[in-house]
Structures are given as C-alpha cells and as structure tokens.
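Entry 14. Two folds queued back to back today. First construct below, sequence then structure tokens.
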Amino acid sequence: MNEEYIEIELEEEPIELCKLLKVLDLVEGGGQAKNLISGGYVGVNHEICTIKRKKLYSGDVLTFDGELFQLTLSEDATPAERPVLDETVTAEKAAPVATTEPAKNKRKRTKKPKVDEKTGRRPISFG
C-alpha cells in the first residue's frame, strides 16, 4: 500500500487536535471538529482518536477523510518534550488492588424542598 503524506509544518508544539483541524481548514468550526473527533472520524498515528484536545507533536500522523498528514516542526521552532507515560502508574490505574478496609460511607444529601410551603416559591441558594 503506497501511503503519501501531506506534510504539515508546525511553528510551535504541541497543538490540540481540534485546533489543528480548524487551522488546516478541514472543518468549518471547532464544534464540527469536536463532533467528528468524538464520532471516530479522525485518526492519530494510525489509530482512531476520540480525545478532542489530544496534544500532537512533530512526527505524529493525522488521518482524516482518507488523507494522511505528517506533522513536522519548522527549523526555527524549539521542540517540546513529549510527556512520558509511567508504566507503574498506568498499571495501578488499570487494576485497582482490593483492600480489606471497609468502604467509607458516602455523605448523605438531604433533598431541599423544591417549593417553599409558605410562599409557594423556590428557595434561592447563594453558595
């Protein structure tokens, strides 16, 4: 399969995915960009991406409407460091460890009356 990339030169990085779609005039506005991303019509690095504000860096590949866009950094721009995912942190989030401690009781909320009995109006809360 012959993949031809359209090169996109970034002046600064990172750039959010929804903003990149707007800058490239692939969508009419930010709302449309966010809808297309959440609908699964946009790919990043050959995988479907549903994260609207995903940070993109030079070297990433954007897939949209059957076209591939390769992000590069302009010569006068300074590269930003990519965040490093810590494997131990992600493993802890993926599989929570069972504890022997009893679960704390959640705070019980009392329902406020919707209408004041005397005036027939709803109460106003300022805080």
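Second construct, same run, same settings:
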Amino acid sequence: MTNNDIFKKLRVALQLRDDEIVKILELVDFRITKSELGAFFRKEDHPKYMECGDQILRNFLNGLVIHLRGPKPDKKPKLEGKVKATTPKRNPIKKIEKK
C-alpha cells in the first residue's frame, strides 16, 4: 500500500474536502495548493499523477492530530513570580544514652 493509497483512504474515511486538507496541513506550517493536492488523488496512469512522499503524509497526520484533538497543552504550568524550592528539614535522630 502506497502513501497515496493511505492518503486517499483517510480522506474518504474522514470525509475531508481539499480545502479542509489544506487547512490541516497549515496547522503544522506546511503549505500546499489544491492543485498539488489533487495530483495525489489521481490514478497512477494519469499524466498529472504525483507520488505522495513521506514528508507530506507525516505532516498531514501530525496536522490531523492537532485538528482532531486540539493543540498540545503545556506540560508545566506557568508560575507567577519566583518560587524558591525548599527541601524538607530533617529531624535529627536523638541518641538514647544508656545509664
């Protein structure tokens, strides 16, 4: 199965139009025109057929994740002001003296 086949099947399964695919690719800063995109969906024997490279499919999948899930949230919450890290104070162990 080629990248073109995978791209076609995803397009049909998710009911995406060309302009929606262009917007999804723009989410990951990848620019492509509708006519360039149409070349991927043509039959292999068509003179204007173009192979879909790994980079295009990868960018589409990454953009699709952002489109469906939303942007990735920040891992660390932003803190206001400086917060000093403190270490817990140790309780010294008292030695018991024998009499």
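Quick look at the second one. The chain has four helices and no strands. The mean pLDDT is 86.
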